[in-house]
Design a protein that fits this description.
The chain is 72% helix and 0% strand. By secondary structure, the protein is an all-alpha fold. It has one domain. The radius of gyration is 19 Å and the shape is globular.
Amino acid sequence: MGDQDNINQRVIISIKWCAAILLIAQGFLHFTTHKPFYDILTSDLILNKISGVILLGFGIVALLPLELLKKNRRVYLFLLPGTMLLLKSITSWKASGYLPEQLIEHSTQIALPFLLVYVLRHHALTKNKLYFILASIIGLTFIGHATYALGVHHVPNNFIEMTMRSLPWMDKQAALQFLFVIGLLDVLFTILAFIPGIRRIAIWYLIIWGFITALARTYYVLDEGVTVDLFLINVPNTVYRLPHGILPMAMLLLSRNLKHRT
């Protein structure tokens, strides 16, 4: 196995783990919070729990050894949880008044199950192709966050609250200014991640900020002490966002000796 094959293998393993933790955490949240996608069809709480079981089940299956998954044509069944997460995101998009950033920021969680099927069933993946796919998915997620942070339509209250509680010396105005700067940086480094020669600097930003924004979902409530909600809601909300930092790490691995085009 050559160097490129080794790198591709490690990237595919990263995608597999990202899909697993996403589905497990999202499935868990179906039992502890209201997940709105099923409202498209019904408001039946039982269906919500069934959906949680399906997502959890596929998340556990994604933990199986990579070679076992590659040999099994049933991996196409992962299109089911992918479709479920897509429907959930569409419902959230509708609830937001069809703000494009609401749908765009979900790009990573929508794409991961579909991406898992793609990388498991396509055996001639180049580093360039994998890099471009990952950079596009992560880039869209960061652009969605940036659009909110910049206040293109409005800055979400939870963005402001997380900022003020994580950085308690900030008042609301300072938090808004901080988020605006972060939004600009998100856009800048998303673009730079596609530019040869300087992409690695951009990737490090995506890694660091991807993990920080994921961990913030738990960190900002720690001043309330250890509560039930911390483990049932905040920690799972952090876990399913961890791919926002893990996938850029895979991009960093792929970025070595890439051809000039991605």
